[in-house]
């Protein structure tokens, strides 16, 4: 078997594992087990342990894979903040409106008091890491004088808050939300435009 074929096969197996984890998180929350993942993927539990080492590491890698996709538009458009932030905002809102994301978020919030260490680890691997990646991107943009100088970490948290708004909470509480791509796109544009006005570079 050639190297490209081995890589393709490995990528396909990883994709099946990630799909299984996402589905099971929405169904089982923090009670997800390596046995359940193996059964859904169609492999042995030992195979998963050989590849990932532990359930915590498996979850971390699945989250990291998603974050890589989520922040992809930023890496591709470092010198064009408007385009990069708009692409990120639209993708992030679409992800938050995915029924899997909503179901997973609801279940994990309900179970966090029962599994505090896992909840904290997931928050660190997802929310904290996303904020850190955004902060690093903002820091580079500020260094290039594409944005006004400010605390990158606080800037990242502010930007995420502007993009998300109240829509994720609306879905959790079963009230009308931005349920079409056009509605989400309009909100993303509004958030990005106002963010860029607030952080426009200072003219010398």
From TrEMBL:
Protein name: HTH tetR-type domain-containing protein
Domain of life: Bacteria
DNA-binding region: 33-52
SUPFAM superfamilies assigned to the protein according to its UniProt record, in alphabetical order: Homeodomain-like, Tetracyclin repressor-like, C-terminal domain
Domain HTH tetR-type positions: 11-70
Keywords: DNA-binding
InterPro entries for this protein: Homeodomain-like_sf (IPR009057), HTH-type_TetR-like_transc_reg (IPR050109), HTH_TetR (IPR001647), Tet_transcr_reg_TetR-rel_C_sf (IPR036271), TetR_C_Proteobacteria (IPR039536)
Gene Ontology molecular function: DNA-binding transcription factor activity; transcription cis-regulatory region binding
